[in-house]
Amino acid sequence: MNIRHLPPLVSVIIPAYNAEAFIERTLISVLDQTYANLEVIVVDDGSRDRTAAIVKDFAARDERVILLQQKNAGVAAARNLAIAHAQGEFIAPIDADDIWYPENIAKQVQLLAKADSSVGLAYSWSIDINENNLPTGNFRASQIAGNVFKTLLCHNFIGNSSATLIRKNCFDKVGGYSTELKAKNAQGCEDWDLYLRLAELYQFCVVPEFLIGYRKIQGSMSGNYSGMAKSHSLMLEDFRIKHPEISGTLYRLSSSSFYMYLARQSSNVGKQGKTLYWLYKAIKVDSFTPIFRYGLYTMGIKSILKIASKKVREIWLSEKVYYSELPKQNKIKERRTKLTDLPKKQLSIQFKLLVGNSLHRLLLML
Asked: What is the pLDDT of residues 99-147, one digit of tens each?
């Protein structure tokens, strides 16, 4: 008699706080995966909106959906609660406003299941999407795999917390997501911190396809960048203490790269003063590598010109009194790139892969 074996169970974990605007879309993308053997654990982290009610409606229609609730304790605590209740062989985190494209879990499981136990994590490529699930044109793509610790310390090439599949038994060795960052009012790098602790002990593998939709909303992207910078600094200091053998140059490079990232985010939402501040921080911590980044010049010149232009209008055109009543002049035009347009970005993708691979090989030699 032949016994049909089910494929490994995957535990999807979703922390949700006041997520009523997008939790439905996220759940639909999860439940529509071509890989069906899932349990979907949503942790309502003390929401004050309809998040729990929406999840309960899904749970009533699909037994794979499980709702847990806790008082507001932060994203790390919510993910840890979900992991503690997970029954799957693999853990698949996704944030409550992101989406997966249909084959994401199937391809990650296929890759990780055939790898040996030294490989603890698989990740996929991601694209930025807007509130309408449309790609904005920005993306994260990398072919970095194997022993990735030094490269990951330098920059978070995975890019977000919704792109990975992790063996559940790895958490037994590295622990869960850090709740100490929230306690220090420094949230933002919990996923990066976990990836680094995993990379200390395990190898990574990659599905080189765009299978993650990482939501970026212009109206809510101001963000607590100071808190994120503090989170990165605390995380980096922890690993500096654990790994004194690693050159201080790498830690400085990590800081300057992160400040450049914060400058880019500030520029994207029209915060020109903040853009210049983070560019200054990048140069201050590492006076060498930022000068080879074209973004230093493009963002710097753009911010200076816009600040100067605003001052000229206020002084010479007497617009200062009425400025707050006028529509924002620097409003970012929404780019409606289709997912099928991504192959047209092959030059950008190949350049990004080339730079990432070159850096990875260089760091392996150090």
From this structure: 999 999 999 999 999 999 999 999 999 999 999 999 888 889 999 999 9
CB 58 within 8 A of CB 29: no
Which pair of tokens denotes residue 201?
Answer: 């002990």
Query: Nearest Cα to 203, choosing from 113, 117, 111?
Result: 117
Residues 6+ away with beta carbon under 8 Å from 351: none
Q: Are 15 and 48 in contact (CB under 8 A)?
A: no
Q: How far is it, in rounded angstroms, from Cα 222 to Cα 231?
A: 17
* Residue 84: φ, ψ to 5°: -65, -30
Pick the closest to residue 256 from 234, 229, 274, 231 (CA basis).
229
Distance, CA of 329 to CA of 348 (rounded, Å): 29
3-class SS of residue 139: strand
Strand, coil or helix: 182: helix
Who contacts 234 (Cβ-Cβ below 8 Å, separation ≥6)? 181, 184, 186, 189
Strands 10-16 and 38-45, by their bridges, are: parallel
Structure token digits, residue 147: 């022993």
Q: Which of these, 95, 104, 88, 87, lies nearest to 43 by C-alpha position?
A: 95
Rounded CA separation 123/100 (Å): 12
pLDDT digits (tens, 9 = 90+) for 296-313: 888 999 889 888 887 777
Structure tokens of 92? 């698949």
Q: Does residue 151 sit in helix, strand or coil?
A: helix
The residue ranges of the chain whose pLDDT is under 70 are 1-4, 218-223, 314-345, 359, 363-366
Work out the number of other CB atoms within 10 angstroms of the CB of residue 21. 16
